[in-house]
Amino acid sequence: MMDVTRDTLMAYLDGQLDGDASAAVDAWLADNPDAAIELAQLQRQNEAINTLFGPVASEPVPPRLNPHRLALAQSRRRWQGAARAAMIVGVLGIGIAAGWLLRPVTDTPALHNRLIADAVSAHTVFVAENRHAVEVAGTETDHLTSWLSNRLGTGLAMPDLATAGLSFLGGRLLPAPAIPGGRAAQLMYEDSAGERVTLYITPSAGIDGPNLELVRLGSDNALYWASATITCTIVGPQSAETLQALADSVFAQLTPAATAPAYREL
After folding, report:
1. Could you give phi then psi for residue 176, rounded to 5 degrees?
2. Which of 30, 249, 250, 263 is the most buried (most CB within 10 A)?
3. 223 contacts 251 by C-beta, under 8 angstroms
4. CA distances (Å), origin 231, targets 1, 33, 202, 204, 240
5. How far from each other are the two terminal CA atoms of the chain, in whole angstroms?
6. How far apart are CA 39 and CA 49, in angstroms?
7. Which residues pair with 186 in a beta bridge?
8. Cα separation of 74 and 70, whole Å?
9. Spatial CA neighbour of 197 closest among 226, 230, 175, 171
10. Cα dist. 64→60, 68, 69, 70 in Å?
11. Which residues partner with 223 through β-bridges?
C-alpha cells in the first residue's frame, strides 16, 4: 500500500500525481475522513485564491520585478555599501595617521619622570639582594668616588648619612640610555632595622624638569632633586619627611656650593 505523507497530499491537491498514485490517495482518504475534510478545506482555499488572483497571474511580470534587474540592483547596493565602508576606513586611517604624526610631544614622559621611574626600578631590584646588593662595597669609598666620578663625567662624593642612622653599603654603575652619557650611579644605605635607601645619581646636562619633586609610590617614596651639575633620586620606604631630611644632607654633601632647591610634591 502506498505511504501517504503530507507532501503526497499537497501533490495530490495540485494535480501532480499520476493515475495510480491519485487512485491510491483516493482510497487512503476514504479510510481517513479527517484528512479528507482538511484536504477539502485546502482545496476551497486554492479555488478562492485562483478566483481572486488568477487574472494577475496571467499578466506579464513588471520590469521592476524582473529577476535579472533585481539581482543587478542588489549587487549595486552591495558594492555601494562596500565603497562607503572603504571610504570610512580610508578617512579613519588618514585621521589616525595624522593624529600619530601630529601627536603632542607630551605623550612621551618628561625625562626627569623617566629618571624617577628608573631609580625606583633599580631600587626594587637591588635592595632585595643580599650578597650582590652593591657592585663595590662601601669600605672602598675612595675607589667608588674616583670610579663613578670618572664614569659620570662629574665629581661625585659618597654622602655620609651616619647621623641619620644609615650605614653606607656601597654602590654600582647602571646604564641610563635616556640621558646624555648613558650612565647612572646607585648608592645604597641601610638602617639598623634593615630598611634600605638608594640614591640614583646622573649628570644633569640636557635634563629639564623641577628642581625638587616627591612622588609617593605605595610602600616606597621617591624624592627627585636636581642641581646645575647632577640629579639625584632618593628612594626608600621612609616617610616623605624623612626623605626630605635625607635630601637636605645629601644635597649639602654632593653640591656644597649650591642653594638647596624648593620643595615640591606630586
Report:
1. -140, 75
2. 250
3. no
4. 104, 104, 5, 5, 18
5. 95
6. 15
7. 172, 200
8. 6
9. 171
10. 12, 10, 7, 7
11. 214, 234
**Structure letter (DSSP) for residue 59:** S
Contact in structure between 211 and 251 (CB atoms under 8 Å): no
- One of 3.90.180.10, 3.20.20.70, 3.50.50.60, 3.30.200.100 is the CATH number of 107-254, namely 3.30.200.100
Between CA 18 and CA 3 the distance in angstroms is 15
The span from the CA of 186 to the CA of 95, in Å, is 45
Give the Cα separation of 27 and 2 in Å (integer).
10
C-alpha torsion angle, residues 249, 255, 261, 264 (rounded to 10): -60
Sheet with 212-217, edge to edge strand ranges: 136-137, 167-175, 183-190, 196-203, 230-236, 220-226, 212-217
Q: What is the pLDDT of residues 170-222, one digit of tens each?
A: 999 999 888 888 899 999 999 999 999 999 999 887 777 777 788 887 778 88
In 48-87, which positions are buried (b, 16+ CB within 10 angstroms) versus exposed (e)? eeeeeeeeeeeeeeeeeeeeeeeeeeeeeeeeeeeeeeee
In tens, the pLDDT along 210-225 reads 777 888 877 788 899 8
Strands 212-217 and 220-226: antiparallel
Q: pTM for the complete prediction?
A: 0.57
Residue 4 main-chain phi, psi, to 5 deg: -95, 120
Closest CA to 233 of 207, 196, 201: 201
Using alpha carbons, select from 128, 201, 198, 203 the residue that is nearest to residue 170. 198
Lookup: cell for 247: 635630601
Taking each continuous run of H as one helix and of E as one strand, the counts in the chain are: 7, 7
